[in-house]
Amino acid sequence: MSGNPDVNRKALYPDLADFVLVGDVGSGKTALTLALLESSDQVLKTQAVVFHPSHVVDTPGEFTSRPAYYGALLSTIAEISTVVYLQPANSRAFSLPPGLLHVYPDKRVIGVVSKTDLPDADTESACRIMADHNISPPYFLTSTATGEGVAALRSFLISLQTPDASMGACEERAEQAIVGENEY
Question: In terms of DSSP H, where are the helices of 6-79?
Fold first, then answer.
């Protein structure tokens, strides 16, 4: 990759840890990973699992779009406490079979609506799709093109690493991430 060659060697946000980004091909996982890490690396198609410092993991979209890779997805998320699922704002499809993200009951599943800057973005439908597949609010509305929601998501993920963080989003933190009201 071009850009900052040190991004995979040091944690830019040492408290930003222990999560995996999951979503269909082209949902924006790599772009969001790099935005969260404030990396200047070029966004390229992820061909294999990419492990960043502090257990920040970017998965290829094929893990969700091809049933043959579901085992690889489950193996990848086994030791990570938080799954960040990306639902593109311009997609009406959910890329996984019902319940796959909830195979491990001890995992947090965070819903992110990506690509909110696109002309055909429908954030309400994207949120409804996640709710229909048992991903509970809060949902983070994000655009790596405009930066919308990236700082709020980063802050939320960091807050999960504090010693008092429970296995789910506590009400106080959840109120800060209400759909459409991302705070920077």
Answer: 29-36, 62-65, 70-77
